[in-house]
Amino acid sequence: QAQLVESGGGLVQSGGSLRLSCAASGGTFSLYVMAWFRQAPGKEREFVASVSPSTRLTRYADSVKGRFTISRDNAKKTVNLQMNSLKPEDTAVYYCNNYPPEPNWGKGTLVTVSS
């Protein structure tokens, strides 16, 4: 399994934007569906978005559809999540992983949206 390091989180006001990045090292990044997940305080981790390895097919949770955009760069081994029109309920720690997810998770990056 590749090592994954998430970055780009921070504090933003409601309606603002953030761009998350995930850098992979090792493994065969280009072969896997990659995804973002999030875990809000007191809640279970949930799926946010995924992108297929070569066809660039994307899928989104209904709660973020139309606001978030997932993308990947296989040459750079990165997967990004552009988040627009952020809402307080988007506050969570965001993680990237394969899809279906591998057992080992990175540290994630915290996104806090203030109202």
List the helices and strands and how they pair.
Elements: E1 3-7, E2 10-13, E3 18-25, E4 34-39, E5 46-51, E6 58-60, E7 68-73, E8 78-83, E9 92-98, E10 109-114
Parallel strand pairs: 2-10
Antiparallel strand pairs: 1-3, 3-8, 4-5, 4-9, 5-6, 7-8, 9-10
Structure, explained:
The structure is a single chain. The chain is 0% helix and 50% strand. It is globular and about 40 Å long. The chain has strands at 3-7, 10-13, 18-25, 34-39, 46-51, 58-60, 68-73, 78-83, 92-98, 109-114. It is mainly β and 115 residues long. The relative contact order is 0.32. The chain has a 6-stranded mixed β-sheet with strand order 2-10-9-4-5-6, with no helix packed on it.
Which band does the percent of strand residues land in?
over 45%
Mean pLDDT: 94
- Topology, number of strands: 10
Find the structural class using helix and strand composition.
Answer: mainly beta
Strand order of the largest sheet: 2-10-9-4-5-6
**Shape designation:** globular
- Helix amount: under 10%
Element-level helix/strand string: EEEEEEEEEE
Biggest sheet overview: 6 strands, mixed
Please compute the radius of gyration using only Cα atoms: 13 Å
Instruction: Count helical runs.
Output: 0
Unreliable sequence segments:
none
- Straight-line N-to-C gap: 38 Å
What does the oligomeric state look like here? single chain
